[in-house]
Amino acid sequence: MSRNFLKMAETMKSELVGIRRDLHMHPELGYEEKRTSGKIKEFLKSLGIEYRETAGTGVCAIIRGNGDKTIGIRADMDALPLQDKKNTVYSSKVTGKMHACGHDAHTTILLGVAKILNGIKDELTGNVKLFFEPAEETTGGAKVMIKEGVLENPHVDRIIGLHVEENIEVGNIGLKFGVVNAASNPFSIKIKGVGSHGARPNMGIDPVVMASHVVLALQEIISRELPPVDPAVITIGTIHGGTASNIIPDEVTISGIIRTMKTEHRSYVKKRLVEITEGIVGSMRGKCKIDIDESYPCLYNDDNAAKAILKAAQQVIGNDHVKILENPSMGVESFAYFSMEKPSAFYYLGCRNEGKNIIHPAHGNLFDIDEDCLPIGVAIQCQTAYDFLK
């Protein structure tokens, strides 16, 4: 039996829009998503879908079909600490918090998927797990969910996810094969010298000068030590030190982030950052303390999973509306934790509409989506899951 999932999703568009606007007006930051998860659980309960709490404010639900094969579908829930400056009836009602990255849309889409697939669960030769992830914007609730066993009982065979994309026109999707998103490693470097009077630098050991050499030298890792065809970035975001123009401080702190597209480059850049920093600081008579955090890994799309999304999307919106992306994003995505565990695929759902002035970038005060994308996202997720379990 074939299904017209787009038609099914279109019939519930007003419901989807209502859910999305409610979530948009009541944004919550990572691990604070109590109202959001409460709304999710209320919706699932109304459909008779079993669920459990995970990762604090996260939710893992399951639709049980007729078989052991299982596909997972993930949506993130958290908002950003940003003031909403849109002039719409559904602008954020919470000062300093905003759904500026579309997670309200992702959650809405997954609830729509839950309703449709639960209604035809007798046709499913397997199970659908629904992952509502908290704290994607910060530490990533995915790794906590995985640790708490959401990929087992029953065992998950494949996972799919999506993200709204303001640079893709509504009605289209973007799909990247291979590496999709970068890995990230935030770092801090504390450089210790000896303070002195600014008129007598010879009496001290200047950490500002040492920090300046370190900042410049670290850029050469990318430009001279990695292949120029492989993207990577080292960004220094902060430098703090000193109290007055005529005082050489005794300490300077640098912080930044490494972004790489290959696991081997990630390891190499971290190693060289330590070697170069210690070498420069040591040669200039200073001392340093380096901390490098292990943040999100690279997100890789499994070929078979990506081809399945491609086929499903072509069926739902047509070949001409599926864009194969050439370049990965230097941004990070906590779906990567799922992709490290199971064959997975992640794609971008167009939400741009210049005619409606929906053109503003994510993580910006004016970000919005064309809500026409909601039924499309629901239909593609449903089609992909349905095909996988068929």
Automatic annotation (TrEMBL):
Q: Which top EC class is named for this enzyme in its record?
A: hydrolase
Q: Please state every residue range assigned to the domain named Peptidase M20 dimerisation.
A: 187-277
Q: Which domain of life is it from?
A: Bacteria
> Which residues participate in Mn(2+) binding?
C101, H103, E137, H163, H363
Which prosthetic group or cofactor does it need? Mn(2+)
Enzyme Commission no: 3.-.-.-
Alphabetical list of Gene3D superfamilies matching this protein: 3.30.70.360, Zn peptidases
Protein name, UniProt field = Putative hydrolase YxeP
What organism does this protein naturally occur in? Clostridium luticellarii
Gene name of the record = yxeP_2
